[in-house]
Design a protein that fits this description.
Elements: E1 2-8, H1 12-23, E2 31-36, H2 43-48, E3 55-58, H3 66-75, E4 81-85, E5 90-91, H4 95-103, E6 108-116, E7 122-124, H5 127-131, H6 137-142, E8 151-154, H7 158-161, H8 171-182, E9 185-196, H9 213-238
Parallel strand pairs: 1-2, 1-4, 2-3, 6-9
Antiparallel strand pairs: 4-8, 5-9, 6-7, 6-8
Length: 239
């Protein structure tokens, strides 16, 4: 069984094409879990027009935080393989089948993607090339290459990911660092989504950080602290 976990907030403009591109790849028994963070733009009404039993809608949430919104979706996932999804991209037809093949061997799979703008024009042919994304804890601690919408993982990894520590900058950085510590990971060159960058994007960072140097150092120290605490907790539980 596959669970796709999507966090939404006022994403109606691009939501329908994304939902359609996901549902087209899901089999009977698979699920698309959508956690909505109090949208006011009609996103909920649009989701409810999708006449399928594959969508599990978690509405009336009030997190005001994309990390907590994603955590809510992931906590409600029942699948053996869990995919993360933004609300405004488009999945290419072979995404699920390709990543599932890799998940038979690896705990965590990170695909490449094509970066597009709000109108669908290509900004960059490869996120991995743009970001120099590769495996490695230190590498991803310094420069994160784990883009959430390109990640899928086995259910067994949830014991390392959840709960997300309070105060972390973004969920995919945390998932990436814990994956490097406790999982067998792979970055694949397959470009499996059209990754949309635009002025309304809330669930992931800009390609080039607009944050100050001091902030970037501080949030890395926060991650280092929580990774260390989680590592000690896991080591104690396993002993």
């Amino acid at each position: 069984m596959i669970s796709v976990c999507m966090a939404t907030y006022n994403g109606r403009k691009y939501l329908k094409p994304q939902i359609d591109s996901i549902l087209a790849q899901l089999k009977p028994g698979d699920e698309l879990i959508i956690s909505d963070d109090a949208s006011t733009d009609g996103s909920i009404d649009l989701i409810k027009t999708c006449k399928t039993g594959k969508i599990k809608l978690l509405e009336n949430c009030n997190f005001r935080n994309p990390v907590l919104n994603f955590e809510n979706a992931i906590k409600n996932a029942g699948g053996d393989y869990i995919f993360l999804s933004d609300q405004d991209d488009v999945w290419l037809p072979e995404k699920v089948s390709t990543m599932c093949n890799y998940l038979k061997k690896y705990d965590v799979v990170v695909s490449d993607c094509v970066i597009i703008d709000s109108d669908g024009s290509i900004l960059h042919e490869s996120f991995q090339d743009f970001r120099k994304a590769k495996k490695g804890f230190v590498r991803n601690f310094i420069r994160n290459g784990y883009l959430g919408c390109c990640i899928a993982f086995r259910r067994e990894m949830l014991k390392y990911y959840l709960p997300f520590p309070k105060g972390i900058a973004m969920h995919d950085i945390w998932i990436g660092l814990m994956s490097e510590l406790k999982g067998e990971t792979i970055f694949i060159p397959d470009k499996l989504i059209l990754y949309r960058r635009h002025e309304d994007t809330l669930t992931s960072r800009e390609l080039k950080s607009s944050y100050s140097f001091v902030y970037r150092i501080r949030y890395r120290l926060v991650f280092a602290f929580f990774v260390f605490l989680r590592y000690l907790k896991i080591k104690f539980q396993d002993s």
